[in-house]
Amino acid sequence: MAAAPGLAERYFTRWYRPDVKGRAGEDHCVLQHSNRICVIALADAHPLLQKGKVIERISYQISANCSRLQNKVSGKSKRGAQFLTELAPLCRIFCSDGEEYTIYSCIRGRLIEVNESILSNPSLLQQKPFTDGYIAVVLPKFEESKSITRGLLTREEYEEVLSKRFNSTS
Question: Do the strands 12-17 and 28-33 form a parallel or antiparallel pair, or are they unpaired?
């Protein structure tokens, strides 16, 4: 799934969800392809992408009975894919400073794949958040594909949020 630098910009539209679940600064990014597939990633201003954060481990184990790693998808209709709501947790990220971050789907759809390469190399999340360091791939229902971006921000709207956030803290 990893794309070469620059390809993400060419083929995907970036959408943002700031302060997911009311957690200040915990912003997520949805890269929407023209074929409606969406890649979930960390947004530019997420605390994990700020200097000094060291990721110890990542877990796709959401609860005792639910692991995103158990997602087995087959066929054209994506049979077996786990269905996600906007606030369905995708993974938990644990940092060396004791902080823990939960990454959410941000859109409704079927979980197509999770990025297992970040399990063995968590630094990919920070080094290449929009390519090799993505979290998961989600396929929205066809009839919902036009409306999934409702509630998400464009790049310009997100930059406005960041500007207000920065100005209120300085």
Answer: antiparallel
0.85 exceeded by pTM: yes
| Model confidence pLDDT, tens digit, residues 44-65 | 899 999 878 899 999 999 988 8
**Interatomic CA distance for residues 102 and 43, integer angstroms:** 13
What tokens appear for 122 in the block?
């968590």
Tokens encoding 102: 């939960």
Q: Which CATH architecture has domain 7-158?
A: Beta Barrel (2.40)
- Express each pLDDT in 71-98 by its tens digit: 787 777 777 788 999 899 999 999 999 9
From residue 15, alpha-carbon distances to 27, 31, 43, 105, 152 in Å are: 11, 6, 9, 13, 6
Q: Which burial class, exposed, middle or buried, applies to 92 when counting CB atoms under 10 A from its CB (0-12, 13-18, 19+)?
A: middle
Collapsing DSSP to helix, strand or coil, 112 comes out as strand
CA dihedral 72→151→9→26, nearest 10 degrees, is -80
Contact 151, 104 (CB under 8 A): no
Look at residue 66 and give its three-state secondary structure. Answer: strand
